Each structure stands twice: as C-alpha cells, then as structure tokens.
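Contributing new complexes? Match this layout with zinc ion.
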Amino acid sequence: MRRRLLLAAPALLTLAAEAPPIPTVASFSLLTDMLRRIGAGRITVTTLVPVDGDAHGYQPRPADARAVSGAQLVAVNGLGLDHWMDRLIQSSGFKGTVAVATAAVTPRSMAGGTATDPHAWQDPRNGILYARALAAALVAADPSGATGYRAAAEAYVADIQQTDAWIEAQYTAIPAGSRRVITTHDAFGYYGARYGIEFLAAQGLSTEAEPSAKAIAALVAQIRREKVRAVFLENMTNPRLAQMLARETGAVLGGTVYSDALSGPKGPAATYLDMLRHNTGLFAASMRG
Ligand SMILES: [Zn+2]
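Output block (do not edit by hand):
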C-alpha cells in the first residue's frame, strides 16, 4: 500500500506538467514575440501575417480562420492596422478572449485628425502598454497562470524600459537639425515623437494606397532643400520607391529598417527589442554622416 502511494505522487506531478498549452493567435509578428515573452511557457502562438509581411492589406487564408476558431486568445494591434481581423474573428465563430494591444495607448492622429496612426509599438513606452494589455488578457483567458504571466510581463517591461533609455542615449549628441530620416511609408511617427526626430515618408500611414506623383515630387524637393542624408528601405514594403528617392536626390540608402514586421529568427530584428535597437543603430549612424 505504501509503495503504491509513493508511485501515485510522481504520476500526478507528470499530469500537471503536461497540461496542454493554451492556443493563441497573433495578427502579426510583433505580437507573437510579445506573447512568447509573457506566455511563461504556457502558450503556443500562431502568427497570421508572417515575418517580413505587410499587415496593412493582408488577405486572410482559410488556415487563418481555422487557427482563430481553435484559439483561446487572439491578439490584435487595433487602431486600424489589422482591421481585417474583425471579420475573421466574427466569421470563425471565435468565443475566446480578444486582446487589443493598443487598448491603453493614446493614438496619434494624422492628416488633420482624419487618420489614426496605428504604429504605436514604435514608441517603447507604448510597448509597455502592449505588454500589460497582453498580460491582462492572458490572465483572463487562463487565470491559473496569472502569477507566471504577471511576473513575465514585469520582467519584460524592465527590458523595454532599459531599451528605451539606450535609444535615448544614442541621440543625445546629435543636433536637432540633423535628426531627419526618410522612409517609404509613414510608420515611425510615434518613434519620432518620442526621440525628437522628423520622419518624412513617400507613402502615407498605410501601404494600401500608392503615393501620388505630386507627393513624390514634393518629397524629392524637400529632401534636396533640407539636405537629408539617407533614405531607408523597409523590410515589408517594395524597395523601388526608396531606391528611386535616393537616385533622384543623391541621398544614400541607409539600409533596411523593420517597421511593421520582425525579421526571421536569424535576421537582425527577430524580436521587438532587437528591432528597436537595429533601427536606432541605422538611423543614428545616418545622422552622424
Ligand atoms: Zn505600416
């Protein structure tokens, strides 16, 4: 009898350890990285828009609807970036927790208040709000993991704060007049507001609309007039526009920055924090000339 009881205890422990992970879905790769950091080993994450992919005009596939319907938690950015998720969530019959990462963010409005900038993650202080929103949603979806989720989120928040301070330090020696950067689409407004950098973009807040010839001509004139040194390619947009701007103005191509998607695991922006550091290194180098 005694021997039996001794055997039963390890068997129970094994059962608890093998509780199936919580299936979650992230609309795009930045949220995948954040969910993995905060998930404390208790979740699996399916990413809909892949690394280096464009979340703006994404067309969901049948496999995406299946992933959403089988998930217990779905994470979206909100502010219009992944607007296609609304219909996907509705049509898949999803009944779980929807985590809106930007729920506590103060949005930047653009174009005289007619457009909302969805790229809030580019300001690390918003990244902290994302982490806390995702942690709260994980706690709601899986209350028995609450302690682990909260501890992982706070450790992550400390890392984000450290990265924010590092970024600020990279720009302290750069005069305000040199803090100008050209990108393809207007994805760095929050970053620019945080660190005092003016970002000029050929395309608007979304990649869904092509820039007009008039807008490009005006940008070319501005780059020449303000002597902006570098034009950056983005990992998830067509490189043609940036190449053309560099050719027309004599600006150099400053490299590829990561705006709306992470890189693959071996790339320079495999995580949210790597992305912030990689972009900052390229931007700051171009300003130092
Ligand atoms: Zn974008």
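Reviewers usually confirm one structural detail per submission. For this one: The domain at 168-288 is CATH 3.40.50.1980 (Rossmann fold).
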